[in-house]
Amino acid sequence: MSLHTTRKLKIHQPENFEFDSIPDSHSWGNLHDHPSVEPIGPDAIPVIDLNDPKLIEKIGKACEEWGVFIIRNHGIEPEVLNRLCSQMHRLFALPAEVKLKVAKAEGNDVGYGGTPVSHFFPKFSWFEGFAIVGSPVDHAQKLWPDDYSSFCEVIEEYNKAINSLGCRLIHAMLLSLGVSEEALHQTPLGDSSKIKTAMHLNSYPACTNPDRVLGLPPHTDSACVAIVYQNGVSGLQVLRCKDDIAPTRWVRVPAVPDTFVVNIGDLMHVLSNGRFHNVLHRVTISKTNRLSSACFFGPQADEKVGPHSKLAGLEESPLYRPVTWPGLQKIRSMLHDKALQAIKIDSN
Ligand SMILES: C=C1C[C@]23C[C@@]1(O)CC[C@H]2[C@@]12CCC[C@@](C)(C(=O)O1)[C@H]2[C@@H]3C(=O)O
Ligand SMILES: O=C(O)CCC(=O)C(=O)O
Ligand SMILES: [Fe+2]
Fold first, then answer.
1. Counting C-beta atoms within 10 Å of the first and last residue's C-beta, which end of the chain has fewer, N or C?
2. Which residues are catalytic?
3. What pLDDT is stored for residue 14 in this prediction?
4. Which helix (H) or strand (E) holds 187?
């Protein structure tokens, strides 16, 4: 593996993660732009029980006020998550030259490598990822020619479970926005067959000097919703803007066993006509290896998402022009965090 290959992928291979001192390429100077705080008191991230009789109301409030919440009683068996975790360990423990057999090709979002957002930052992330859309069988065969089926079975099992959870959450969000049960099915996210999913398996290697490195730089997700599973090690932080309580700060998202973190992305912000907060988040590093899986949910590639007519129309003007998911990703690849500005409807 040449340095050239890894630079193009914007990642460093695991053996290179074992630096005694952090190389300049990975040393972030501005990690303390805002203080990092604990999720306590008014900064406690909402925890929502999916069996709560007031579920719709609570989800709506969390999406508006936070853009992130933790869910429990989600119905996915802990064994399914344990199996996913074992396969993630197995994947990232492979030698670098094996993982590079399934490296993301130019312009392709599936396979092993870094993330598109890292290209906007001058420093490398302390991270390696594997993106899956549809079946991972072709890649799994290259990684484990003699035993690829166990990985595929676990991914398929997890995909099924997380898809139905994602669908349930999106419906609850739409209901909280006032969309009726009947109208729900006419939306671009109305039923599971209309929802597109992408799965990202993430590994954040342990670091002896974690205060100087970053797992993922600050970003919003482009999708409607992301559901994140974490292996018991925290690292995710969400930005809470200056309010009556405190100045702008990074709030640590706790890693609560048997829960998922739900993030609101750009497309849900657009669909809700700006009501739901597309939360800015980043991933910090610790002295323990962290694994996470982020599943992104959005509409099929050719479906446009715009402010829902229930919210924008008679009384409220639509704030954004409709956009497809790949369309938004393309704008983000050029304009980074100014992408939503580019689809904003001029109010004058
Ligand atoms: C479906 C996707 C969302 C994502 C781009 C991708 O095609 C696969 C990688 C995803 C990810 C993960 C880390 C943060 C993020 C902003 C990035 O650069 O890559 C997201 C992308 C996104 O939200 O658009
Ligand atoms: O690892 C995490 O907790 C979050 C990952 C993330 O933000 C992403 O994949 O977009
Ligand atoms: Fe993210």
1. C
2. 290
3. 43
4. none
Q: How far apart are CA 5 and CA 12, in angstroms?
A: 10
Helix H, strand E, coil C: the string for 26-80 is HCCCCCCCCCEECCCHHHCCCEEECCCCCHHHHHHHHHHHCCEEEEECCCCCHHH
Q: Which parts of the chain sit beneath pLDDT 70?
A: 1-20, 312-314, 347-348
Nearest to 198 by CA among 171, 226, 220: 226
Q: Say if 115 falls within a structural domain.
A: yes
Residue 17 is assigned to a structural domain of this protein:
no
**Residue 152 belongs to domain with CATH number:** 2.60.120.330
Is the distance from the beta carbon of residue 266 to the nearest atom of ligand 1 less than 6 Å? no
Predicted confidence at residue 30, as pLDDT, reads: 83
User: By alpha-carbon position, which residue is closest to atom 24 of ligand 1?
Assistant: 222
Residue 24: inside a domain? no
* Residue-number span of the structural domain to which 212 is assigned: 33-343
The 3-state DSSP class for residue 106 equals coil
Give Cα 43 distance to the centre of its chain: 21
Number of domains present in the structure of the chain: 1
- 3-class DSSP assignment, residue 152: helix
Residue 19 lies in a domain: no
Pocket test for ligand 2, best of 229, 252, 292 (most atoms within 8 A of CB): 292
Q: Say yes or no: CB of residue 131 within 6 Å of ligand 1.
A: yes
pLDDT tens digit string along 289-343? 999 999 999 999 999 999 988 776 657 889 999 999 999 999 999 999 999 999 9
- Whether the CB of 17 sits within 6 Å of ligand 1: no
Two tokens, residue 76: 């996915």
Contacts of 137 by beta carbon, 8 Å cutoff, 6+ apart:
148, 152
pLDDT tens for 217-256 read 999 999 999 999 999 999 999 999 999 999 999 999 999 9
The tokens describing 314, both together, are 């008679």
Claim: this prediction has a pTM higher than 0.90: yes
